[in-house]
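Review the following:
>
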Amino acid sequence: MSILDLGFDSPEALLEDVKDMAPFMDAMIADLGLSENGAVQSIRDGISPHIVLGLSDDHLDAIFATGLNYMQAGEVAQAQTVFQKLVTFKSIDYRFWYALGTTFQTQERYEDAGRAYLMSLALKATDVDGYLRLGECLLAAGELENALGSFQTALALCADGHGQDDQQQIAERRVAYTHQRLDNSGAGSTSIS
């Protein structure tokens, strides 16, 4: 079992679980008296909450900068709150997921961090830092083979022109370190299923 597993045996099981939640969500919205609320209806129709709330990209960038300032000041919980709001407002911005992942990783919540990094990478598959951070989480969880794959992907992206020299050097060191750990452990680690 990997830290990245969602606890579902198949994609169909995940979809079934989401479908089972729909009546509960409908009842909750009705109980709150929001069934006829235009903003709620727009969100349920698939319009991004940031659009419904009238938040421009400049607004979101300013909020993001606030979260970054909290992180730099060491106020991880405050930063995490900001980034969680941002992924709620606009879930398709990879930066917000990546930043949220860093807050979890700082707290050594590697499973949550790994999932946030995966969301970030789903939105920007060429983000070298995303693969490096994901690999670090997998390494911390003892998933050496999966970590190696993540670091090797970062290295390949650098070779393909997507990374900087410092990212390539980090990836090379992480690959070498993970190979050494695998050699020392007899290559017995958990793989993503």
Confidence is low (pLDDT under 50) at residues 188-193. The chain is about 70% helix and 0% strand.
